[in-house]
Design a protein that fits this description.
By secondary structure, the chain is an alpha/beta fold. The chain is 40% helix and 22% strand. The protein has helices spanning 2-8, 24-35, 72-78, 82-104, 128-138, 154-160, 191-208; strands at residues 15-19, 39-41, 44-49, 52-61, 67-70, 116-120, 144-151, 166-171.
């Protein structure tokens, strides 16, 4: 896979690959395989403005230290209270916990601090969700953050450069009409495929471990 080879060429030390489910998982699995690196999920849930759910007032991101990233500008303009954000966040964290248990059972989170983190999705449209993820991950003190995606509009790529140490994006078509147009197969990745892909990635990592004397 071209994206995996481009990321591998960066020669990152102590890499950890984080996929945004569900679409980012098959893409991230190829990168993890190429790097012989652990694969984990980073799950994000949007908190919309009460009367306009598609407009993100905040986002919650999972992990050992869950994060809430608030869009202060949207909250100010829409008069969204901190109480509303906190109550909505509780519900979204519960949904994240449910999904994580489904996908990863009881496997622990990968360590982020001090590692080269590679955040992977199947593409970027506006960049709003990815930006929230990147801001939350930065708080966990990784050695570096690299964003890797096959396709994105150039405007989104440039807007996200300030959030990361590096970006690998194979294609920045203009005009940009949507992620799916750039895939021969852009099927909705089912839960079963996510689970199987993660299990296979763990098996590869286990096989790479040196045998104990």
């Amino acid at each position: 896979m071209d994206l995996a080879k481009e990321v591998a060429a960066k020669s990152l030390s102590d890499p950890v690959v984080l996929a945004l489910p569900r679409g980012g998982v098959p893409v991230a699995a190829e990168i993890a395989k190429e790097l012989k690196a652990p694969l984990d999920l980073v799950m994000v849930r949007k908190i919309g403005v009460p009367w306009q759910p598609e407009l993100a007032a905040a986002a919650v991101i999972d992990g050992k230290d869950p994060q809430i990233v608030v869009n202060e500008e949207v909250c100010g303009l829409a008069n969204v209270s901190r109480t509303y954000i906190e109550e909505a966040a509780k519900r979204e964290f519960e949904e994240i916990a449910r999904r994580r248990k489904l996908y990863l059972k009881d496997h622990p989170h990968c360590e982020i601090q001090g590692h080269s983190v590679i955040v992977v999705d199947d593409g970027i449209a506006t960049g709003t969700t990815v930006r929230a993820v990147l801001k939350a991950l930065r708080r966990k003190k990784p050695k570096s953050i690299l964003l890797a995606v096959p396709v994105a509009p150039i405007e989104a790529v440039e807007a996200l450069r300030g959030e990361v140490d590096d970006i690998v994006c194979l294609s920045t078509p203009a005009p940009f009409y949507g992620i799916g147009l750039h895939y021969a197969d852009f099927h909705q990745v089912p839960d079963e495929e996510v689970i199987k892909t993660l299990e296979q990635a763990r098996a590869v990592m286990e096989a790479e471990k040196p045998e104990k004397p």
